[in-house]
Every structure is written in structure tokens, then in C-alpha cells.
Amino acid sequence: MKPETIEASGVRLRPLRDDDAADIEAASNDPTIQRFLPKLPRPYTRDHALTWLREVVPAQWAAGGANYAIADPATDRLLGAVGIARVDADRGQGEIGYWAAPWARGKGVTTAATRALADHAFGDGFGRLEILADFANPASIRVALAAGFEPEGVRRGAVVDPGNARRDVGVFARLATDPGEPIARALPDLPAGGLSDGGLALRPVTPDDVDFYEELFNTPDILASHVPPVPPDREELELRCSRAQTRWLLGERIDLVMVDVETGAPAGDIGLYYQEPPTGQAMIGYSVLPAFRGRGFSRRAATLLARWTFANTAIARLIAGTNPSNAGSQRVLESAGFLREGYQRNRLPGLAGGRIDDILWALLPGDLRETS
Fold it and tell me: What is the pTM of this model?
């Protein structure tokens, strides 16, 4: 590839220059960029920027790749960078990487730049391009999906941190023959970030919810319904919370926190697990802290989530399971409109190698009850 300027929708891709150093320095000291580019020097100085511009960037071009400034087409100011590295000429493939400066986020410039560079690379002979994205970086995954890169799976331990710890990353790829349109999502975003009936709100789980989940899973009767009924450790909860938004983007599951609107306190959680996309079936599960029980939060949350699901996804059937001894959860499902469909013997793993029976419940759109 040659370092020629590419005009795209809302952005310009142009060769990087020494006078971009100040903006590169400022952006590279941003905590988000440092988190997901962990090998950047800290603090990142102007000298580091100039070394990158004068040594790393030319080497990437010489290796058959690319490294562009994402620039504002009106002012030419640097908004970020996008490039192609790890080029395999024999296979006609490479890996796209990108970052956006703090002053340019939320405007779609990284998506526009990634799409434009991919189109240009395919016209230059590439047949396949990959994006590797950290599962804790939903913003990067949104870019990959919006730029037409299909999720392909997990590359285990593909990224090495400065302390030599390895991290898994998601693999996204686009072929020259792909249409390049945004990848359709099985589970879209909620309106304005959440659902509410006025007294109860449902919001997406965030990385800041680890302490809440630790409290939740240390509540004895909630833990008893966990599969298996063993408390997850802190590291497992951190992974769950940090990857929740990514699993939503990939259409695997939705994790929501129930919030008491009056106090703003987290009251419980509810999840939707899209375990059978081919048949349009998903499963829900929920739990409520003892201090918030008796207010119908579980039923209200199930109703809110089911109503949104049937209206906004291809899911045509919701199922849930209850322990035969959990009469409270059975009343919740009945009051929301779920019908009991079966008794599944030894369905779930229990303690010490034991098994637990499970009652199967199901809800169709016409079953949903809209009681207050």
C-alpha cells in the first residue's frame, strides 16, 4: 500500500506527520488508551510520539501495511489513528488496529475510518482483514461490528501485557467479498440505556458492579439457585462485569441490574440468555436482595424485559427454570404469565457431584400479563 490520502464520510485518512506529535502525546496519556494499549510508555512523552512517527510508522508501511492519521476534514486536526499490521502477503491478509483521541469519541469517526481503510485495502489486493478486540473494550467491538467485521470467535492468550500476563481477545474478520454493511445485532441496545416502570429501573451491568454482585452471591438463598450453587470468586465476578456489554453486543446474553428508582440502590439482577438463536428461544433468570423483597421487583423486571424482548428481537419464546422447592420464584413466573411445561429430573449440577431437579416454565408473547 502507498501512503496516499483517503477521503471518507466525515473523516480524512492522511499520512501521519511530525506536527501530529502533540496530539499523539495527549491522546496516549488518556487512561482508556493506556488500558487497552498496555505497552505504551507511561507517561507518554513527545519524544515517544516522534520515535513512533519516525521509526514505527515507516516500518509498518515498508512491511506492506499502513498507518494513517484519522483527521478532521475541516481542520486537519488528528482525531486518532488507524492502520494495518501483521501483513501476510501470501495469504493476502492483515490486522486492522485503531484508536480515537478523547476529543473525537462518540462521533463515529473510528468506524468511518476503519470502513474506509478496509475498502481501500481490498481494492489494493487484500482478501481478508482481521480486528482483534479486548472483550472488556465494548467500544472497540462496536467499531468492528459497525464496520462490517463478522465475529469469528476467541483467540486465547493472544495479547501479552507488560507483566507477561496473557489475555483472550475476540476475533472479527471481513473478506473482500463481504458486503461491508454493519453486522446485524441479535440483541439491540435498550432505549436510553434502560427500561423502567416508574418505580423499578433496569440498566446494563458495568465493570463497577463487582461489589454488588459479590453481595448478591453471598446471599444464601440466592447462592442456592446459582448454577452450580458455589460462590464465584472475585476474579470471576470482575470478568463477568467487564465483559457483560461485549456479550450483549455479540448476541449471547443481556445482564441487567434492577434499581430501586426511589433510592437509586441496586436491588437485584435479571439476565436473558440467548441459548437457542436458531429456534428463537431464550432463557431468563433473576434474583433480588432481601431488603427489596415484597415489592414485586422480580415479576416487574421479568415483565419489562419480556415486553421489550418480544417487541425488539427475533426471540419468540422465553423459558425459565425453578427449583421445585422455590415456591416464591414459581409465583413470580405465574404472575408474569409463564406457564409450567415440564419437570426435568436431575437437570442441574448441585454440590458434591449431586444433581438438582428443575421445573420448566415458558412464556409466549400472547401469555404476557401487564398487571401493575
Answer: 0.92
